[in-house]
Structures are given as structure tokens and as C-alpha cells.
Amino acid sequence: MGMDSGMRVGMEANMRVGTGWDLHRLEEGRSLVIGGVSIPSSKGSVAHSDGDVLIHAIIDAMLGAAGMDDIGTLFPDTDPSYCGADSSELLSKVVELVAACGFHVCNLDTTVVIQSPKLGPYKAAIRQRLASLLGVEPSCVGVKAKTAEGILGELGTGSAIMAQAVVLLGT
Ligand code: MG
Q1: pLDDT (tens digit, 9 = 90+) per residue, 30-43?
Q2: What's the gap in Å between 116 CA and the centre of ligand 1?
Q3: Residue 165 contacts by C-beta under 8 Å, 6 or more apart in sequence?
Q4: I need a surface site. Which of 73, 97, 99, 170 has the fewest CB within 10 A?
């Protein structure tokens, strides 16, 4: 009986969790955009879009939670209209898509792995930007930054950036 009532409560809440992950190569002379914030750096993401690795991970987490197709299917890099695309705009579209399915973001937690530059000074701005794009309070957005401790191949040598996101959607 206890289990029955617990299952009903879970269904009524209708919470959906999703995870996302992304990786980009970093090269000299490219711009570095993380979570919709431009970060001063000699190296930036190699990508068809603006290469915002964090927003790409968040988009996949949201789409996964909503039971929808992934970012590569929704915004294919073979489509010239996404060349140099502002990933913040893509995230806004995804917020609308999941809202159309009746979902809103409850909270989001993320980790960015980059050898340099250190992201500490930019974390508050990234949280603020993501919160505004998602329509939630900054307290509902987690942004953690780590180095690769000089190991993990290209991540450790500063030739790549990686991001991971977990999102909880609710109705
Ligand atoms: Mg990407």
C-alpha cells in the first residue's frame, strides 16, 4: 500500500531527468563562448555553430528529459543556416519546444572541463546568463569549472573543452 501511494505521488509530480555531454576542439584565434558568455582566451571552439560546449550539453539534457531527439538531429551541422549559429538562440528554441510539451526547468547542474583559462571569474556571469535563458532563478543553475589536471589527452594539453549537464524538468 505504501509503495502504491509513493508511485502515485511520483507520477503526479511528473519529473523528468536528462543528461547531456559535449566536447569541442580548441584552436588559436577562435572565440570562446561558454554558457552564452564570451571568455577572453587565445583559443576557442572549433565548430559549425559558435561552439558553445556548455549550452550544447544543456540542450541535449533538456531534449533527453523531454523524450525528444538530440541536438544533432534538431540542428544538423550539415544545415548551412546553423553556420556560426548563436547557441543561446538554439537554447531559447529548445526552452520553447519543451514548454510546448508542458515542461519547465526545475533545476540544472553542469560541469565544464577546460585546462585554461580558469573560469572562476566568469562563473557568476554564466549562471546569470543561463538562468535568464531558461527563465529560472540563478539559484536553480549550477556551474562548476574544473581543469583536466594536465592529463586526459587533448583536454589536459588545452586543445579541447568538455561539458556535462544534468537537468530536471517538471510539468
Ligand atoms: Mg557541440
Answers
A1: 999 999 999 999 99
A2: 19
A3: 19, 20, 21, 54, 57, 58, 60, 61, 108, 109, 110
A4: 73
